Every structure is written in structure tokens, then in C-alpha cells.
Automatic annotation (TrEMBL):
Transmembrane listed as a keyword: yes
Protein name: Sporulation protein YpjB
Leader peptide range in chain numbering: 1-22
Assigned keywords, A-Z: Membrane, Signal, Transmembrane, Transmembrane helix
InterPro entries to which the protein is assigned, alphabetical: Spore_YpjB
Annotated TM spans: 226-246
A Pfam family reported for this protein in Swiss-Prot or TrEMBL: Spore_YpjB
Length: 265
């Protein structure tokens, strides 16, 4: 897993160029979109101080935009504010590792695109990684592969967490709540899902819900100017899944070992 993580990490920095100044600014929202992307690029280059300055500049521009009459819903304001604060705290942190900082900035980047996009939102292009990872979860459950199930489900959760704020912007709250309920059930009752065929039906139901959300949001054609972001962000997602999923599984494994040791004592 470490080898996979390092290889994907290097590929991102070798293959994908910077995007700064590649898009023409046509509106205040487009400018905010550009700033969020520039901040992400700075984090990818480990230029955390530059990323911090860009995020602080974003905050000033966002306040100006709202005071000038730009309309946002209360949910949009809350989601943008939270994701921005998380991104800013991440770049300021001296203890947070770079992949986790990239995670926070990517989440923020997707949120701003969801708010500003008039085309297919960028987060919908993550259907491939999400559904591919979830298919591995289902295969592991069918094969009673305990390690594979936990590892792949943790990777799925990391990916879902990254797009979750953007989903909340574009999808009605009732559908998001239903999706959350299924995911929380599977997460809480992992042993039953692995052992009981009836519980595995929840996996099928969740797969159907996920496909339905993506199908409803998909348009025939994405904005061509977004394709570079789709490719780059997809690779960042893979990087984050490799790192966060592995790290979370290792942590869960240590907790289970400690529990068993305490029980024996």
C-alpha cells in the first residue's frame, strides 16, 4: 500500500501542470473558483504559505461578493464557510501531512465548483472512483474477505467524505439523509454485513442510491474547460484513498488488537 501511495503521489506531480491563469475570469464566482484551484495547486507543490494567502484572499473576496448582493442559500453559506475554514486550518497546521492537506483543499475546491458551476458539477465526475471502490467493497463482502472489506469500505468513506459537502449543495436534503442512513448502517454493523446475506442487501440498496444521484446530475457534456480539473482531481482522489484508507484501516486494526489484549487480561 505504501508503494502504491508513493507511485500515485509522484505521478500527480510529474504529469499534471499548474492551472494558474489558464481560465479567463468572466464573473466574481469564476474568480473564486480560480482562487480555490490555485490554493490547491500550491498545496500540491508544498507551498503552504502561498496557499494560506490565497485562502485568506478568497475569504475577503467572498465577503465582498455577498455584500454586493450575490445570493447564496443558508446551506451554501454554511458549507462554503466550513470547508474554507477546514482548508485554512489544514495549510496552517505543522503536524498535518501533505496528503491530508490535499484532501482538505480538494474538498474545498469541489465545494466552490458546486456553488459556481453552471454545467455538470465537478464532483459528479468522481462517479468512476466511487463506484469502482464500492464494487470492491461488495466483492469483499461476497467473498467474506474481512481485511479487504474493511480496507475498501474505509477507502469508500474517504472518497464519499471528500464529495459529501458538494453533494449537499446539489442534492435535496431528504435524499442525502437517506443516503447517510444506509452508509451509517453499513459502517456500524460491518460484522453483520459480512456474515449475513440479508444485511448485504443494504450494499445493493446503497449502490442503487449512489447510481441514482449520479444519473440525475449527469448531463450529456461537461464544460470542456473543466476536463483538466476532472483528470487532476481524480488522481488526487486516488492518492487520498490510498493514503487515508490505509491509515484508517491500520488505526482500526490497532484498536481491535488493543481491545482483544485488554479482554484477555
Amino acid at each position: 500500500m505504501k508503494l502504491k501511495f508513493l507511485s500515485v503521489f509522484l505521478a500527480i506531480f510529474m504529469i499534471f501542470p499548474l492551472y494558474a491563469n489558464a481560465k479567463e475570469v468572466s464573473s466574481p464566482l469564476t474568480e473564486l473558483d480560480r482562487i480555490s484551484d490555485d490554493a490547491l495547486q500550491m498545496v500540491k507543490l508544498s507551498r503552504f504559505e502561498d496557499a494560506r494567502k490565497l485562502l485568506e484572499y478568497f475569504s475577503r473576496q467572498f465577503v465582498t461578493l455577498t455584500s454586493n448582493g450575490q445570493q447564496f442559500s443558508m446551506d451554501e453559506l454554511r458549507i462554503v464557510t466550513i470547508s474554507h475554514n477546514d482548508a485554512l486550518e489544514a495549510v496552517k497546521s505543522e503536524s498535518l501531512e501533505q496528503p491530508e492537506k490535499i484532501n482538505k483543499l480538494t474538498k474545498f475546491r469541489l465545494v466552490i465548483d458546486a456553488v459556481s458551476s453552471t454545467h455538470q458539477p465537478l464532483w459528479t465526475e468522481m462517479e468512476g472512483p466511487i463506484m469502482s471502490t464500492f464494487q470492491q467493497v461488495q466483492e469483499a463482502a461476497t467473498n467474506k474477505d474481512n481485511v479487504g472489506f474493511h480496507e475498501n469500505f474505509n477507502s469508500f468513506l474517504a472518497l464519499y467524505d471528500m464529495v459529501y459537502p458538494s453533494i449537499k449543495i446539489d442534492i435535496p436534503a431528504t435524499r442525502v439523509q437517506a443516503l447517510d442512513a444506509r452508509i451509517n448502517f453499513i459502517d456500524e454493523f460491518r460484522p453483520q454485513v459480512l456474515e449475513q446475506a440479508t444485511s448485504q442487501k443494504e450494499l445493493k440498496a446503497l449502490e442503487s442510491d449512489l447510481k441514482s444521484i449520479f444519473d440525475d446530475m449527469t448531463e450529456d457534456e461537461a464544460d470542456p474547460s473543466l476536463w483538466w480539473v476532472i483528470i487532476s482531481t481524480g488522481s488526487i482522489i486516488i492518492l487520498t484513498l490510498s493514503y487515508v484508507g490505509w491509515k484508517k484501516y491500520k488505526g482500526d486494526k490497532e484498536i481491535r488488537k488493543d481491545f482483544k489484549r485488554d479482554f484477555r487480561e
